[in-house]
User: What shape does this take?
Amino acid sequence: MRYIPHTDADIAAMLQAIGVSELDELFSTIPADCRLEGGLNLPEPMTEWELRSLLEALSKSVAVSPEYRVFLGAGSYDHFIPESIHHLLQRGEFVTSYTPYQPELSQGTLQAIFEFQTLTARLLGMEIANASMYDGASALAEALLMALRITRKRTVALSTLIHPSYRRVVQTYLEPTDYQIIELPCLTDGRTDLSSLAGMSELAVVALQSPNFFGCIEDLEKAAATAHGCDALFITAFTEPLAYGLYKNPGVYGADIACGEGQSFGIPRSFGGPCLGMFASTMKYVRNMPGRLVGMTTDLEEKRGFVLTLSTREQHIRRAKATSNICTNNSLCALAASMYMASLGGTGLRELARLNYDKTEYLKGLFKKARFTVPFESPTFNEFVIEMPSGFADVRRRLLEKKIVAGLPLAPYYPELTDHYLFCVTETTTKEDMDILVTEVKS
Amino acid sequence: MSEFQGTTGLVQNEPLLWEKGRKGRCGFSLPRRDVDSFPLTDNLAGSGPDFPDLSEVDVIRHYTRLSQWNFSVDSGMYPLGSCTMKYNPKINETLAGLPGFSGAHPFLPAALSQGILRLLFEMEQYFCEITGMDAVTLQPAAGAQGELTGMLMMHAYHKMQGTQRSKIIVPDTAHGTNPASAALCGYRAVPVESNDEGILSVEAVADAMDEETAGIMVTNPNTLGLFERNIRKISEIVHAKGGLVYGDGANMNAMMGIVKMGNIGIDILHLNLHKTFSTPHGGGGPGSGPVCVKKELEPLLPVPRVIEENGRYILSEDFPRSIGKLQAFHGNVGVIVKAYCYIRSMGAEHLTQASRCAVLNANYIKERLKDTLHLPYDVPCMHECVFSDKLQNPFKVSTLDMVKGLMDYGYHPPTVYFPLVVPGAIMIEPTETESKEDIDLFIEAFKAIAREAQEDPDMLHEAPQRCKVRRLDETAAARHPHLAD
Assistant: This one.
C-alpha cells in the first residue's frame, strides 16, 4: 500500500528491536474478549484509477451549474472563485499543517489568521474577530451563549427571519439549559417585528439576521436601540457577508457581536460544508469570546511575530470552565476567505456587491413585470421572495427536467407562506439565465 | 548516518496585506455587467470595508511566502501525540474538488443529488462496520462538536428515562474538550484518576458511579497511549447504574480491525476524520466529527438523515425524537468525501495494517528512546508513547527547551505538557506513514538533543535558531492583546 512505507524487512527489524516476534504481540495488553475476531468486512481496496472512475460517476449524477440553472441561496451561495485561490489552497504547507501551537514553525498560518481577523473586523465594523468557527449557525449559537454569560440573564430573543436551520441549531445547543427563547415575528414588509420587546428587563440578547432569510435588510438601528434599551446585547447575524460591500455593516449600528457564514468568500458550496463561521465583537468582551485568537508580538530579536493568545479562555487550559468546547476551527476556510478578500480588495468588493444587487433587482423587476407578487417590499440584497400562483409546485417540478431549479419553497419552514418561493441571484447568474427562468415560469 | 533534515535556506520576509498594494489594483476578474444599475436606498448604503487593493501577483507572492514559513506533513515528520498527523493522500483532494461535490447546493432536490447521498449513506455503513456501532451521524463539523452531539444525546436519553442526571465521570487523562463539552450540557465533570499502570481501575469507576451520574467519557486507547483493558467491566458498572459510556475516538488510529468499540460496551463514539481517516488538518480545520451510536440511541441522532428507499436515497427530517441540528446543512461533506476515498483505497486489509504499523512505530520509538528520556509507564503502548523531561531537569533543561531544539533538526515537536498526569510530558505519535529510516533519524535527533542537554544546555535554551522567528513573547501577547490592525 503506497501510504504505508514499511517493507517486511523493516517490520522484522523493528519487531526485533522491540523484542517481540510478530505484530500481533504488540496488542498483548488488549484482553482477548475485547479483540475483534475475523477482521473487517469492507469493499476490496481500489486503485487510484478505479477510485477516480467511481467518484467521477458519483459526481456526474449531481446537478450543478452551468449545466443547471440553480436559483438557490438560503445560506449557501454560488460565487466565482478565482483560480489563483484554488491554486494557493493546494499548497501542502497550508493544507497539511496542524493548529499553530508551535509558533516558530507556524508563522504562515498565524500571520494569515491575524490578517483574517483584521479583514473580518473591518468588514463587519467591529474591533476584533476570532480565528473562525465551524459555520454561521454554530457561530450564532456560540454568540448567544456568550451574551448569556456576559449579561447573566436568561432570555434570548431571536427573529423568525433568522435562517430556520440556524434557529434549529440554536435550539439544539440551548436544549439542556433552562434559557428561554422568544421568537420575534415578521412584519408585512419582510422585516422583524420588535414591538414585543419594549421594556423587557430579563432579556439577555436580541439577535437579528441582515440580510435576513427573505433577503431583506433589517432596521438594525432600531433593533440595536431596542436591545440596548432593555439592557440587553445586540447580535447581528448574516449568511451573506458580501452584502456589507454595499450596505452599512453591523458595527455602524452598534452591534455587540456580529457573526455569520463566510462561505460566499472563496469557499465552494460542497453540499453545505465545510463552511466558515465568522465571529466578531468588541474588545470589551474579548475574554468571553469563544474560539481561537491570534495576537501580534515580538521574538527574542524584537522581530514581529504572531502567536495563539488569550488561551486561558479555551478548553485545553480551562477545561470545564472554558468559554466554549471548540478546539479545531475552520482555519483553511478562513485562509480561503482572506485570499478572496485580498484578491477583491476594497474597490473590487464594492463593485462585486453592487453587481449582485443590480442583477437581483433585474430579476425582481422581471417577475414584477410578469405580474408575480413580491410580498415583502423592504430593500434586499441577492435574495427575495415571490408569491407564486397556487399549483406552482408542479411547474417547478417540470422545470427541474429543463435543468432549472426555480427557487426554494418556503412552506416547509414557514407553513403560513404557501406558494412563496425564495430566489437567489449572484454575479454567476447571467441576464440570459434570468430571462429564461421568467419565461419558463410564466408558460 | 544520514544528514539531519534541518538546515537554513532563503526565507523571504513579507509584510501584512495592508502594508502593500496600491489603491485601484484588483486581483479578481470581475464578472461582466449585463444588466443596468438600479437605485439603492441611500440611508442603507455603506462606504465599504477598508481593504487593501492588490494585484493577483501581489496575492500569489504573499501567500506563497507565508506558506514557506509553515512546517507541514508534506515537508516532514509531525509526531504530535493524539493529533495523528499521517500523510494526506493527494488524489483525495482532487476528487473532493470534482464539480458534483464542490458545486452542489445543500438544498438540491434528492433526485438531483443521488451521487452525494449514496456516498454519505455508504460512509455511514463503513463507519458502523469499523466501529461495531449501529447508526451514524456525519453532521458534526469536528471532534469537539461530535462530543457535544454525544453529550446532547446522553442528556436526551436520560430525559427520556424520566430522570435527569447532574454529573459525568471524566478521567484525568482526558482531552480538555471532554469536560468542556460535558459542561455545555450542564454536567459537572467528576474527575477519576488513572491507577499506577496509567489506566482506569474498576474500583475507581465503581466508587464514582452512582444514579446521579449520566455516564463516563473514556478515550480508548487513552492519552498515555495505553489500552483501557478494564473497559468491559467499567461499562458493566456504568450500565448497571443506568449510565451510558461515551467513547472519545480521537485515538482510533490504533484500533482499526483490532477492536470494535461497539463490542466492548461503548454506547456513543465520535470519530475524527482528520485523524484516523487521513483528511488534512488545514492548519486547524475544517475537521469532521461523525458520531456512532448503538441501536437504542439511533432515534436521537441529528437530522436530516440519509435514508435508502428502493435503491434511491433521500434526506429525511422525520425523526421526532432527534436532538435537532448541529450544523445548518449536512456536515462537512467536502471532508467526508476525502475520508470515503481513503477507506475505499485502503479496504479492510490496509486499514488494519495501518493500525498495526502505527502501533509498531510507537513501540519502536518507545524502546529506542527509553534510555534517553524518562518513560513513566514502561508497558507496551498503542499508537503513541509518552515520555517526560525528568532526566534532563537536573541540567535545567525542560521539555519546552528540548522540543524547540528539535525544530532546528527539522522536526515538528511532539505534543507537550499533555496529558496532565505526566509532568513535562512529551507525547510522540509517529503514525503508520513514517518510514523506518525517517523514524531512526528522528530518534537520533532526540538522542543528540539529550546530549546537548548535558553538555551545552544553553544551546537548547536559545533554540530554535533556524526558524523564521526565534522564541516569541507569549506573555506580552496575552497582556496587551493586539488582535487586529
Observations:
- The two ends of chain B are 48 Å apart (CA to CA).
- Chain B has two domains: 92-345, 347-475.
- The first strand of chain B starts at residue 135 and ends at 137.
- Chain B is about 35% helix and 10% strand.
